[in-house]
Amino acid sequence: MEEKTLLREVFGESSDSEDDKQHPQFVDSTIHEVPSESLHQTNPSWERIIEIDGLWLCTDFLSSQQQSSLLSAVEKEGWFTEASHNQAMRFGDLPTWATELSSSIREAVLFGDCVSEPMDLATSNGDKESCLLPSDLLWREPFFDQIIVNVYQPGEGICAHVDLMRFEDGIAIVSLESSCVMHFSQVEAEAGDNGKEGKNNLSTTKIPVYLTSGSLVLMSGEARYHWKHEINRKSGFQMWEGQEINQKRRTSITLRKLCQVE
To answer: Would you state the torsion angle of the CA atoms of residues 102, 253, 111, 140, taken in this order, to the nearest 10 degrees?
Structure first.
């Protein structure tokens, strides 16, 4: 059985299958450890997306130099030497640069300037407006143990989806190269405990979030479980402030943590 098929049977599909042309092709990978410099930015700025609880955006997470270093580390892995290979996954032990990226995300949460004192983020315990991550997620070990790296050519994106329940709460997405607009839309609530989806007249409005190169998106709680996210990079869909974004190659790095098997 092909490894791609095996992984799909174990972990399922990462997104809706209504538009397969927007899904990247998976390539399994052998990791070559690549040392990298610390990626931590001093006092990064966080913006709370007020329409969606648990959705935060840090536009100045990585400097231009740090972005170049990160892209270089990814390139050295040798995952994308063939045009048909535009997605790579790693579970468990992460390469050095991904471990450092994970640590930098934790530091950005702790030392971001959206609250008056750094440790408020770890101790606010449920204050959605001042806490980027609940303390049980912020201090879990490992912070992340699964990464997906996607390389999107102009016009390629990803369909609306909620990440699989096989992953814990707290998901981070780092954007590199071309800017884009990610849209969020509410999912239908489950009817009772029978697992069937029910209609509940939720708003069909899509919330746009502008992702620049070097930005970081953090999703937890409502944003992680009750909102779909998508990137449609077909002509006419990538609009921001009345202007269409010039689409070039985009690289994204998603970090998640697998649920523990009981």
So the answer is: -40
pLDDT of residue 5: 44
DSSP H stretches of helix in 95-201: 96-111, 120-123, 135-138
Residues 23, 159 contacting (CB under 8 angstroms): yes
pLDDT tens digits along 129-186: 557 899 999 999 999 999 999 999 988 999 999 999 999 999 999 999 999 999 999 9
* 191, pLDDT greater than 50: no
How many other C-beta atoms are found inside a 10 Å radius of the C-beta of residue 108?
A: 26
CA-based nearest residue to 87, from 9, 153, 34, 179: 153
Element counts in the chain: helices (H) and strands (E): 6, 14
Q: Is 197 helix (H, G, I), strand (E, B) or coil?
A: strand
Cβ of 58: how many Cβ atoms within 10 Å?
24
Q: Which phi and psi angles does 192 have, rounded to 5°? A: 65, -150
What is the average pLDDT across 102-114? 89
Question: How many residues belong to the chain?
Answer: 262
Nearest-angstrom CA–CA distance, 217 and 209: 9
Can you give the pTM of this predicted structure?
Answer: 0.78
Q: Name the 3-class secondary structure at 87.
A: strand
Number of neighbouring beta carbons within 10 Å of residue 35: 9
Name which of 197, 235, 221 is nearest 53 in CA terms. Answer: 221
Q: How many CA atoms does the CB half-sphere of 32 hold within 13 Å?
A: 8
Matching residue, tokens 């983020």: 121
Name the nearest CA neighbour of 70 among 95, 39, 102: 39
* Rounded Cα gap, residues 56 and 53, in angstroms: 9
